[in-house]
Amino acid sequence: MLLSRPPFGPAPFTNADLLDSGFYARADLHAIWTHLRENEPAYYCDPGDGREPFWVLTRYADVTRVLREHESFSSRRGTMLCIIDLSMPDFASDDMMPDTDPPRHRRLREPLNRVLTPRMVAQHEPAIRDIVHDLLRPALDGEVFDFARAALMFPMAFTGMLMGVSPERWEHMSELTTMTIAYDDPDYSVGSSQATVRQAHHELFSVFRDEVNRRTQDDKGTDLIGILRRMSVDEDPLTEHQIMLNCYALLLGANVTTPHVISTMVAMMAEHPDQFRRVRDDPELRKSCVQEVLRWSSPASHFMRYAVRDVELHGRTIRADEPVSVWLGSANRDERVFRDPWTFDVARRGNRHVAFGSGPHYCIGAGLATLAVTAFLDHLVNLVDEVELAGEVRHLASNFVAGYKSMPVRMTASADALRSVPS
Q1: Residue 96 CB partners (closer than 8 Å, separation 6+)
Q2: Residue 232 burial (10 A CB sphere; 0-12, 13-18, 19+)
Q3: The CATH number of the domain covering residues in 15-420
Q4: Is the pLDDT of residue 211 over 90?
Q5: Residue-wise pLDDT tens digits, 321-375
Q6: Where exactly are the structural domains of the chain?
Q7: What's the Cα-to-Cα distance from 298 to each of 99, 157, 260, 354, 390, rounded to whole Å?
Q8: How many C-beta atoms lie closer than 10 Å to residue 250's C-beta?
Q9: Which residue in 110, 203, 294, 412 has the fewest CB atoms around it within 10 Å?
Q10: Threshold 0.85, pTM exceeds
């Protein structure tokens, strides 16, 4: 296959940069990933400042292999690059769904899967569409508004509903989850990186403890917290600690990714009005458009695993116990897999992106997220004729989420939308 070339040259970086949250807000990571895919697909990153070195894998085939082969690459010691030493033990190992390997992972996941089946998720579609309509309401008056800031609350509304959390808590919980992955961002930091994460965790776990304790023992509620309270693993009921960890995992998975998918959608529709017109004129393209936005945004930048045994890869040896990072955004632009990967194409076919991961840890909320993003696209094309970026776009300082924290936009409402507004 003829490989398309990226529209940039290689970008300089140091090993320490790959742990620096601020670097991700100001650098063009795709230039780095392209260089590594071509020249050092198994890259050994040593920050040189006392923090443990880790491997960086950027090709699609390697990313999917690591995510699928839990026998060789374990999740039990943590799944994210973080502010602490990677050699430290993970306090959530075997207790929080992301930090488990099969078969324990499956036993934690299956009861929650039953709440997130396509049939169950579809029951929430009317509520999600109402949330989308409220999100786009400022578009009807033609004023500039910060879409990225507004979008941060988008997943919290339906995730809070599914978890059975009181609505008055949603806004604060949304901000707290962003603090956990953007701890160095000046808009979210409350001191040092460690202090910011510590405060966010303390307040979130306090909310979860309250929500667990306000339910009676015989509560038969079908929300996610109710299901966690009734779950047993290996014939033992989940402890309060395990319940709160898994509440946290579910909330984090939704809140720190979905907002940036719809923000990417708005940005791309502003930058490519021809693509916006195609989707608006042809409803058959909406499904492929959603998948292309997921590929393009790749909101979860990376996942971590630890090698269980020595693995040979691209002439290098990954030793047992060494941390391995796989970069989803890089995999989703791999020229070996995606034809013309640098073109945003709403009609792209055979789109095998890994925005939701791969293997046993494939995102448990993928169906819900896809429904929500599809509902957003439906409303966007029905209510809006044109999208315009109206100010500086700013990105989150985060090495985990490829996200936006500010995106001023102006939307031109469609004639049908204006007619529907009460006079």
Answers
A1: 242, 245, 246, 248, 249
A2: exposed
A3: 1.10.630.10
A4: no
A5: 999 999 999 999 999 999 999 999 999 999 999 999 999 999 999 998 999 999 9
A6: 15-420
A7: 21, 22, 9, 8, 24
A8: 23
A9: 110
A10: yes
